[in-house]
Design a protein that fits this description.
alpha+beta; Mannose-Binding Protein A, Chain A; binds calcium ion
């Protein structure tokens, strides 16, 4: 019975979608096959959370959903996320989204959640100040800022929208996963 169940599971996962993508069939609103609540772009699915968690909680929650905090590997991907977030942020200026980037092990050595290094060519820090490892006006946050978040209301012209922030802040998050297709 165990094997039968496994085969059944396998069959479910490997059965191609029965609806063609070009018919405009209302029964097939998600031709790209991302899970409910996820958005398709460039072969991947993205989840923009409505709720807020610390960076570590966000990292874990994305894994629970079968993905990971987003790893941004191209200008196109950054632009897509920048624009998407721009439409999802409230007027509250700190209403930004965690991404899967941290320098919590060695200061200023930014690593993605898969332990890959941040490429010199693909850095999208906001303005000229970030990352600033800000410790507070009076040094009240000695731990500085070791986690990256992104987003500007309406999106940015140059797609530079990353800021480092205190990892214990609660922010929304972007999870990413490979599209099931
Ligand atoms: Ca830092
Ligand atoms: Ca900062």
């Amino acid at each position: 019975m165990v094997f039968a169940n496994k085969n059944e599971e396998l069959r479910k996962h490997t059965t191609p979608p029965s609806c063609p993508t070009n018919t405009g069939n209302k029964d097939c609103p998600k031709p790209r096959n991302c899970a409910e609540g996820w958005e398709y772009y460039g072969g991947k699915c993205y989840y923009f959370s409505p709720d807020k968690l610390t960076w570590a909680q966000s990292r874990d929650e994305c894994i629970t959903r079968g993905g990971h905090l987003v790893i941004i590997g191209s200008l196109e991907e950054q632009k897509f996320l920048d624009q998407q977030i721009g439409t999802k942020m409230s007027m509250e200026p700190e209403d930004k989204f965690w991404i899967g980037l941290t320098d919590s092990i060695n200061e200023n050595e930014w690593l993605w959640v898969d332990n890959s290094s941040l490429s010199l060519c693909l850095r999208f820090w906001l303005g000229n100040q970030e990352p600033d490892d800000w410790k507070g006006e009076y040094g009240e946050y000695p731990e500085g800022e070791d986690c990256a978040r992104m987003g500007e209301l309406g999106g940015t012209e140059d797609a530079k929208s990353w800021l480092d922030a205190n990892c214990n802040r609660t922010q929304k998050r972007i999870c990413e996963t490979k599209s099931p297709l």
